[in-house]
């Protein structure tokens, strides 16, 4: 619509909740709709119409026919100042009545047929009418999909005006329009921003807006109302290239989505706001499943800001959190580079269904047969394009992953296909989910780049850097190690356990250690202000009982003083491992390093993470033979990383420990495990966790190490128990963590 319209319908909406700049932010229902028709050509005003909306009683009565009764009343009974007052029993009836009365009034004028709405700002249409209609599955009349923003039209003649600060008072004052200020409701003067607007004020707002429109149409402005704001009727799917530039001010992150939600469900939640083509991307977790998050890209910053106002609005029974995100975040999820995916998604208006759990031997013919109707069944769900409508997901070497995406021509066929959820193909049941173009690209990117579980190749180096294994002598033991915590223990439980010693903890000095599954391991490290307080705390609290507020179990906790270096040694939790090289010989040169522990599994495997290895160290450890070591996910901003260094702790058991966010004062010592300089010959140390408490000490260890080159006199044991009274070579073990030098 480029030419000037014949009529403008000045509209004002009010809810049962907040008004002004907070209109629609509390999800309250629309209860009041006021409008007045403006004849643009003749510069005349029509009558003021008022529509009152009663609560929806569809769930309280079975008499559906009585719900849509529309009653006419007179101005004297209402007292709001409107020329015509109507009442509707539901939102759907109110919107249809509005459209009917507006059409009849335009047709009765006879000077033109084109009409467009005009509102004070964006909230009335985008944040009130469309979101509520979407949540109630109500079809909105066509007239609500385009409107003029009076503030933007006013700004064309007053460029210095601030859109966010504008209101009808400022615009009327700038145009020298008389306003009955004492009788007006000024949102800026209201102490309570959630105050409900009185009905008579809505009528006065509409009357002033109509006078502002007449003033803009008259000399000296002679304004032309053309190119109205548009509301997208439906979400357009599409592809996004990783080379595309996405503005940071147009992207949000939505959290708490139901796991079965699709991009269309996300578009319905943000109904009224214009999402860019293909701008809804569902996020997957490390296992390739949806994690309840999505990145949404809007057409402008204005729409992004309106989307942020829907923070904690509801999708069904769940509230959705909405936060700012960046264009880089969106491209990592939705960006694609595969030509095969681009060809698969090139067909528009196609419904995508994801198949999961396919037999590795599944073929196109078997998939087509799976969706064909069975004997005696009339339902059909033909795959769009036949074999071309099926995309198998494969690893880079061509092996199938068990996933596939299938195209269907319409929603009816897709719903028919989804009813085959968990039916058998071959010998396996197949899971079916409604999918999106962004999910297709994300899954393909995941399998075509790096594996989900980081697996490093065996190192091919024979020379180890000479770095001391054990903490340097004389280290200050100003830290505490708590062992045997209840698995449900929280930071608050630990602080309660420490009691008076809580005041001696350094800022952010509590470090909880998680196991490979991301669960508490029962260990915790605490940085204290001094070695004296750490020693005193260990003496007083050792083997005292700790209770957890989140569980009924109580356990006694062992408390030991330790140094920052020892804390770093255990936190990074690794050891040298005796591995075979690519040759057939066994020697000390075969002693290698296991991969470093990861901090935690990445939330989105498509996210590239900066390498934790220094460039030189990585080049020395892993020659460029096409094999890569996956780095850990970077911690969120505000949490310090363990510093990058050429020294690494290695874990023979691939223990992917996760840590409580590390403070700036976290341990900084990271090193290999070569043999100490005090040993008789060069070599390395092997950590042997899990030794039994009934072990015969060095004799059992020597038997276990047969076939490896070592000297028995260099066999060391690290234990906290006393030496056996009859055999000094035997030590009473008190913990299953022992060290042997080979």
Describe the overall structure.
It comes from Sphaeramia orbicularis. InterPro entries: ESRP, Nucleotide-bd_a/b_plait_sf, RBD_domain_sf, RNaseH_sf, RRM_dom. It is found in: Nucleus. It is a single chain. With 742 residues, the chain is α+β, with helices and mostly antiparallel strands. Among the domains are: 7-56 and 80-230, Nucleotidyltransferase, domain 5, CATH 3.30.420; 240-336, RRM (RNA recognition motif) domain (Alpha-Beta Plaits, 2-Layer Sandwich), CATH 3.30.70; 339-448, Alpha-Beta Plaits, CATH 3.30.70.330; 479-572, RRM (RNA recognition motif) domain (Alpha-Beta Plaits), CATH 3.30.70. The chain starts with 6 loop residues before the first strand and ends with a strand. The model is unreliable at 58-77, 187-191, 450-470, 574-681 and 716-742 (pLDDT under 50).
Identify the notable features of this structure and list them briefly.
Nucleotidyltransferase, domain 5; Alpha-Beta Plaits; 742 residues; alpha+beta; 6-stranded antiparallel β-sheet; disordered C terminus; 8-stranded mixed β-sheet; 23% strand; single chain
Short account of what is shown:
The protein is an alpha+beta fold and 742 residues long. The protein has 18 helices and 31 strands.
């Amino acid at each position: 619509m480029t030419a000037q319209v014949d009529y403008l319908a000045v509209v004002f909406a009010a809810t049962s909740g907040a008004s002004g700049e907070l209109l629609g932010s509390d999800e309250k229902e629309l209860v009041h709709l006021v409008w007045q028709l403006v004849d643009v050509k003749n510069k005349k005003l029509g009558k003021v119409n008022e529509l009152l909306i009663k609560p929806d009683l569809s769930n309280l009565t079975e008499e559906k026919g009585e719900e849509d009764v529309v009653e006419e009343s007179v101005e004297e009974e209402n007292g709001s100042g409107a020329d015509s007052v109507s009442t509707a029993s539901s939102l759907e009836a109110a919107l249809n009545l509005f459209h009917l009365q507006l059409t009849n009034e335009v047709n009765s004028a006879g000077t033109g047929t084109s009409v467009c709405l005009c509102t004070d700002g964006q909230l009335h249409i985008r944040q009130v009418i469309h979101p509520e209609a979407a949540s109630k599955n109500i079809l909105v009349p066509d007239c609500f999909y385009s409107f003029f923003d009076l503030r933007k039209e006013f700004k064309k003649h007053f460029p210095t005006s601030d859109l966010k600060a504008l209101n009808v008072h400022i615009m009327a004052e700038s145009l020298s329009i008389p306003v009955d200020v004492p009788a007006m409701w000024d949102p800026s003067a209201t102490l309570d921003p959630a105050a409900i607007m009185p009905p008579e004020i809505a009528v006065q707002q509409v009357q002033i807006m109509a006078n502002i429109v007449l003033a803009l149409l008259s000399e000296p402005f002679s304004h032309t109302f053309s190119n109205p704001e548009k509301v997208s009727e439906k979400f357009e799917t599409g592809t996004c290239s990783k080379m595309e530039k996405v503005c940071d001010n147009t992207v949000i992150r939505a959290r708490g989505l139901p796991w079965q939600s699709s991009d269309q469900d996300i578009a319905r939640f943000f109904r009224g706001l214009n999402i860019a083509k293909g701008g809804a991307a569902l996020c997957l977790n490390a296992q390739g499943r949806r994690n309840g998050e999505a990145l949404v890209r809007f057409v402008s910053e204005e729409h992004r800001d309106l989307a942020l106002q829907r923070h904690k609005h509801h999708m069904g029974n769940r509230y959705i959190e909405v936060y700012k995100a960046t264009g880089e975040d969106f491209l990592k999820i939705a960006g694609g580079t595969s030509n095969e995916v681009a060809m698969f998604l090139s067909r528009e208006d196609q419904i995508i269904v994801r198949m999961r759990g396919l037999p590795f031997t599944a073929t196109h013919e078997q998939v087509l047969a799976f969706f064909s109707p069975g004997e005696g069944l009339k339902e059909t769900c033909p795959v769009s394009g036949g074999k071309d409508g099926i995309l198998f997901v494969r690893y880079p070497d061509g092996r199938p992953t068990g996933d596939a995406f299938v195209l269907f021509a319409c929603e009816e066929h897709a719903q028919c296909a989804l009813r085959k959820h968990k039916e058998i193909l071959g010998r396996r049941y197949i899971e079916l989910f409604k999918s999106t173009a962004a999910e297709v690209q994300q899954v393909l990117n995941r399998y075509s780049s790096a594996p989900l579980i980081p697996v490093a190749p065996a190192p091919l180096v024979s020379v180890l850097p000479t770095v001391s294994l054990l903490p340097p002598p004389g280290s200050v033991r100003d830290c505490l190690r708590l062992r045997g915590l209840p698995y449900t223990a929280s930071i608050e439980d630990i602080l309660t356990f420490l009691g008076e010693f809580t005041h001696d903890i350094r800022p952010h000095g509590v470090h909880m250690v998680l196991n490979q599954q991301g669960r508490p391991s029962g260990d915790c490290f605490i940085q204290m202000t001094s070695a004296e307080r750490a020693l005193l705390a260990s003496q007083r609290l050792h083997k005292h009982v700790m209770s957890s507020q989140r569980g009924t179990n109580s356990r006694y906790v062992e408390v030991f003083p330790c140094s920052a270096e020892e804390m770093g040694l255990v936190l990074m939790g690794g050891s040298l491992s005796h591995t075979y090289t690519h040759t057939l010989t066994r020697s000390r040169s075969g002693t290698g390093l296991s991969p470093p522990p990861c901090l935690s599994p990445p939330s989105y495997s498509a996210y590239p993470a900066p390498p934790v290895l220094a460039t030189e160290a990585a080049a020395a450890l892993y020659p460029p033979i096409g094999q890569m070591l996956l780095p850990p996910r970077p911690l969120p901003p505000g949490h310090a990383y363990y510093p990058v260094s050429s020294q690494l702790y290695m874990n023979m058991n691939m223990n992917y420990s996760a840590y409580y966010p590390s403070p700036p004062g976290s341990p900084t010592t990271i090193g290999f495990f070569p043999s100490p300089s005090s040993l008789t010959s060069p070599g390395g140390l092997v950590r042997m966790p899990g030794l039994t408490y009934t072990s015969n000490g060095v004799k059992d260890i020597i038997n276990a190490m047969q076939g490896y080159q070592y000297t028995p006199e260099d066999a060391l044991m690290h234990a906290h128990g006393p030496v056996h009274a009859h055999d000094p070579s035997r030590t009473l073990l008190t913990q299953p963590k022992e060290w042997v030098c080979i």
